[in-house]
Design goal:
heterodimer; A: alpha/beta; Rossmann fold; 2 domains; seven-stranded parallel beta sheet; 8 helices; B: 248 residues; two-stranded antiparallel sheet; 29% helix; globular
Chain lengths: 323, 248
């Protein structure tokens, strides 16, 4: 019997998230070595073009449809997924390690009595088994892990795997209606934060630390971030001081991020901060202290006053954009 | 009402981590262990919940005698009772969840708090797993909580915002920074904690569902280059961002 991989496709506002395409493409890759089929499932009301995941290797998508399922419900989503996993007999279930994926996947693992590996950043197939690499201690160490149970659950860290199209083919959609979903636990409202971009999802992050000196000076950080289409991040020191919201905190007790570019402004680089951002593809550091640990991980550094350098950066970028 | 809070004892986030001789776990020599930072919010919320709805609080921790240090901290903050599920094994998420769920059941707790993740293995799964095993509702990564009678209204952090979640007791809540400000233990609390007895139990053996094949340090990053020491370095930096990083 061929193995079956099921990919959970996350929708918000009826749109499938980019991280779900990443998971689809990554699942397709391992499926070749496992001789497995990959199918997807999306739970929601109206969902825009779920067949696009066909481009990433999924042949078929189950759309579990009910207007009461437009927003997340851990109870309903758990019941529905368990039913589907059993009925199509999939052995491997893969989620994106988003706030929804990380809430839902452990419940599924407990219900199926199977192992789970969260926040996978790399994987390979060895002897027909998936060996997953995941960070521990906020990335201060990496572990290679395999799951021993028959059924296996993985969540993949967003922004790490590439969403590469492999074909122009669309997936076939099978709509399954559900009646009376179990809405014991349900989202009744979503409050969007003022910040446009979340550090966990951003491709570029501009972060400020104690060197920014005062909460009002973050205007400068925000201006640079806006210009680059970046999210604004913060060190623990400035979050603890109440200058910035906790949702912006990068580090071991904040968010672990791996954007293409991380710009650290006035951040010295405490161990717990470095743990949260060192896997960024490129790191730029601007700090007055030439001995600041942040320069140990930075690709490019300027030792100097950020209040002089950041305005010059803003001006220089504007020049390029206008030319 | 019985309120439980599950607590882990983990390396301080300021610790340097090195891999042990077994290449499967960390070398703990010279590492300071503390209450898992997210669990402090769980303890605080358990105490606040007790102050509001009444009842008894119990802290449950799985690990060896060293965990008593963190358990005592929770007792000093004001938790009533403590259970240490004593083991030297390193268990994975589902095994931990099974052991804890058993004890939560024994304790008959209807409100259970966990930190949103333990800062050692960072899997962030045990709370939700316990809920599923117990048939409880759960809300994870919670930054706001109201419990009125049977009704629970929680705010959880999501990408770019918050979800308002409604559910009912019994419930498992996993706590995120921002939910509250953990109190300091008072001198009176510390004295009282000394008299409290930690109930030690040996949990049933579990077999892990996952296997750690190896642990290693991440590849060391080569320090990059210092482009300059003032604003005259900016054009070169921007050129690099444009041509090397390709983000502009």
């Amino acid at each position: 019997m061929a193995n079956k991989i099921l990919v959970f496709l996350e929708q918000r506002d009826g749109q499938i998230k980019k991280s779900s395409y990443e998971v689809s493409a990554a699942a397709w890759k391992v499926s070749k070595d496992l001789n497995a089929e990959v199918e997807g499932v999306v739970i929601g009301s109206e969902v825009e073009n779920p067949n696009i995941v066909g481009n990433y290797g999924l042949k078929k998508v189950y759309h579990i449809k009910n207007e009461q399922l437009a927003n997340y419900s851990s109870s309903a989503y758990t019941d529905i997924l368990i039913d589907l996993i059993k009925s199509i007999d999939s052995q491997i279930i893969i989620f994106s390690a988003t706030s929804m994926g990380k809430d839902l996947a452990p419940r599924i693992a407990a219900k199926l009595d199977c192992g789970i590996v969260n926040d996978v950043i790399d994987w390979k197939v060895d002897n027909s088994e998936i060996i997953a690499t995941r960070p521990v201690y906020a990335g201060k160490a990496l572990t290679d892990v395999k799951i021993k149970s028959d059924k296996k659950i993985f969540t993949l860290r967003p922004n790490v795997f590439k969403a590469e199209k492999i074909t122009e083919q669309a997936a076939t959609i099978e709509i399954k209606k559900v009646d009376n979903p179990n809405l014991r636990t349900k989202v009744i409202e979503i409050i969007k934060s003022d910040t446009k971009l979340d550090v966990a999802e951003a491709d570029i992050i501009v972060s400020g630390g104690r060197g920014v000196k005062a909460p009002e000076n973050f205007k400068l950080i925000e201006e640079l971030a806006d210009l680059l289409g970046a999210a604004t991040g913060a060190s623990r020191a400035v979050v603890d001081a109440g200058w910035r919201p906790h949702s912006e905190q990068v580090g071991q007790t904040g968010k672990t991020v791996s954007p293409t570019l991380y710009i650290a402004l006035g951040i010295s680089g405490a161990i717990q901060h470095l743990a949260g951002m060192r896997s960024s593809k490129y790191i730029v550091a601007i700090n007055k202290d030439k001995d600041a640990p942040i320069f140990q991980v930075a690709d490019y550094g300027i030792v100097g006053d950020l209040f002089e350098i950041v305005p010059a950066m803003i001006e220089e970028i504007k020049k390029i954009k206008n030319s | 009402m019985k309120i439980a809070v599950c607590l882990n004892h983990v390396p301080d986030t300021a610790s340097k981590i090195s891999v042990g001789q077994d290449n499967q776990s960390i070398d703990t020599s010279g590492v300071t262990f503390v209450v898992n930072p997210y669990d402090e919010f769980a303890v605080e919320e358990a105490l606040k919940t007790k102050e509001k709805v009444g009842g008894d609080t119990v802290v449950i921790s799985l690990g060896n005698d060293n965990n008593k240090e963190s358990i005592k901290k929770a007792l000093a903050m004001g938790v009533d009772n403590a259970v240490l599920l004593k083991t030297n094994e390193i268990y994975d998420s589902l095994s931990v969840a099974k052991i804890l769920a058993n004890e939560i059941k024994t304790q008959n707790a209807e409100i259970v708090f966990f930190g949103k993740q333990s800062v050692d293995y960072d899997n962030g799964a045990v709370g939700q797993m316990c809920a599923e095993l117990l048939g409880y509702n759960s809300v994870s990564v919670v930054v706001g909580l109201e419990i009125n009678g049977n009704k629970v209204r929680a705010e959880r952090e999501i990408e770019g915002g918050r979800e308002i979640v409604e559910t009912e007791l019994p419930v498992v809540i996993t706590t995120q920074k921002g939910l509250n400000e953990p109190r300091y233990a008072s001198l009176k609390g510390i004295m009282a904690a000394k008299k409290k007895i930690i109930d030690e139990k040996i949990p049933e053996n579990c077999s892990n569902y996952t296997e750690t094949i190896s642990m290693k340090k991440p590849p060391a990053k080569q320090p990059g280059r210092i482009i300059g020491t003032d604003a005259t370095a900016v054009p070169e930096l921007i050129r690099l961002l444009k041509e090397e990083v390709k983000v502009i």
